[in-house]
Each structure stands twice: as C-alpha cells, then as structure tokens.
Amino acid sequence: TLIESTPAYKMAKGSAEDPVLSPAGWQSHLKELKGWTDKQAQQYVAKAIDRSSLVAAEKRYTTQKGLKREKAILAIERTGRGQIAPLMSQEQVAKALEGSTLTTGQRQAVETIVSTPNRFVGIQGDAGTGKTYSVDRAVQLLSSVNEAMNHGKTEDQPGYRILALAPYGNQVAALKNEGLDAHTLASFFHTKDKKLDERTIIVLDEAGVVGARQMEQLMRLVEKSGARLVQLGDTKQTEAIEAGKPFAQLQQNGMQTARIKEIQRQKDPELKRAVEHAADGNR
C-alpha cells in the first residue's frame, strides 16, 4: 500500500531556485537565517502554511517500509547536529581563502566542510558549479590542520583523512583523478575493515542517485564510527535508481547545506547561459 511521504512546502511567490522544505526544514532554515528561537520559527511556519504563503509542493508517495527508512535517515541526521568539533573556525577559513578565486558558493561549501559542528552536511549545486573543486580546497585546508596538530610533537598523530565514495565506477575514476582515495559505495560496503573513526571525513559524490537503503546503511556506519559525512549532489539533475530520494529529503528537513549556484565549467557565454537556463528547469 502506498502512503503519503513527509509533506514539503515551497513559497507561494518564490522562484525555481527557492528551497522546497518540510515544516521542520523551514523552521531550521528560519532559525539559521534570522536567529529565531524554536518557538518563533514554529509559529511563523504554522502561520505561513495557514495563510498560504507557504504552499504544498507535489505530493510524494512511499510504502510503509519506505516511510520507516525515511524517518530513520532524518532522525540520524538530526541526532548528528552539534555533535562534532569544527576543524577550523569560520575566521580561520576566511583568512586561509583570502585572495582565492573561489565563488561565493564554493567558499560556503569549503566552510561547511571544515567549520561545521554537524556530523552530516550537504553541498547542493548544479552540474559544473565546482562541487568537487570545493572539496579539493577543503582537503588543502585539512593538510594545514594536520600539520598544526603535529607541530612540535615528536610522534605524528594520525590526521584527518578524506574518503570519497560514489555510486558508479566512472564517478570513482573522476574522483581518483582529483587525487582522492575513492571507491564505489558497493565495494566500500563489502570491505571488512573500513577503517572509519572520528578523523574520517566521507565525501559522497552524486548523492542524488543514492537510494534510501544505501543512504541509511552509510549514515549508520558514519554515526557508529564517529566519522563525518559530506554529501555532494544536485537534486534536480538525477533521481535515485533505488527507492527513495534521501538527499532531497535531508535538505527539505533542515540538514545544513551549502548551495553553489555559479556555473564554472562552461566558458562560452552562450553555452553557459543555456546551461544555467536548463539548471533552473527551463529546458
């Protein structure tokens, strides 16, 4: 039997770029944006739905088992909020990125990876916005964190490491070309000694095509080991082959997410405009 999935809402007079979030997601968004309390955000969202300034997005349906998995994924993410120590302060990141050519969105992505207190975060961006490039810059910053950690010590402590995962082999090959230690999700799940600990940062590329079953499995491993998970993807580009759309649902329910909007890959202005047009859903 199909049942309605967690309802999501969008702004009645918004644009295609505006978020589609659950009521809890809107509350988190407003608390972060305006510094409101839980109660203030809750009351505002309830009124906005009542007055139809927030309107229901397209309904989604799932099975009882699917809904149970969806709720488990969202609960794991919520439990991970505020549970880890930031690797660098926002001020340190700003100083380290002074004079860099990163776009505003890419800077936000780098800051999210190294300055977050949350175990699970997302980086949402259209194809060609430089999500992987942002990870490269975060890796460079982590090297300096590791160096500082061992400065003046006789024995080196194991530093923070990035482990990249992706659903398919061609994506893994691209990540390896960037110099990352990369594996397919399937091969990672089959590895007996995963070597995960609190100094492991897992980067999941193409998170939009990862179904709920694999996402729940990965998030449970991350939670149990004390590791961190950064999900990269584009909710508009692809949908999961398996059941569920956890990357989109996590964003809708308030997972901290950096949004990269500036497309970098297309150098020809006409082509770039066409890609941006398509990215906004105007095909």
From TrEMBL:
Renumbered residue ranges of the record's region Disordered: 263-283
Positions in coiled-coil regions: none
Highest rank taxon of the organism: Bacteria
Protein name per the record: AAA family ATPase
InterPro entries: P-loop_NTPase (IPR027417)
